[in-house]
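Backbones bend. Our protein:
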Amino acid sequence: MRIMVVDDDDIIIEAMRNILEPEGFEVIAARSGEECLRLLESGITPDYIFIDIQMPGIDGWETLRRIKSRRKLREIPVAMLTAQPLRRETLEKEDIGELVDYVVKPFTRRDIEETLKQALVLPL
């Protein structure tokens, strides 16, 4: 299975690789919302996407909106990576209703595994 990690911080991408690759996942790294969208449009189809909220250029929310606006991509589950817990008002916004989950940084291996189990991507 393929997991895309979209984050402008190489440390986060490497941490996700260290968690996911030993579990047998292929990790596809994108260092911006723009790169994520280019990879998806080029035909790369991950089974799950983690997107950092705060990135230069296209932020995580806009990246999520653009993914969910494309018919061939909208079924891919997406979780946001965030430095702070999301407020209820944010989670209730209509335009992010397609969000599967979110993970607060710094995260642990267990946080990532629990997120993937809830999405039925990780059978642990």
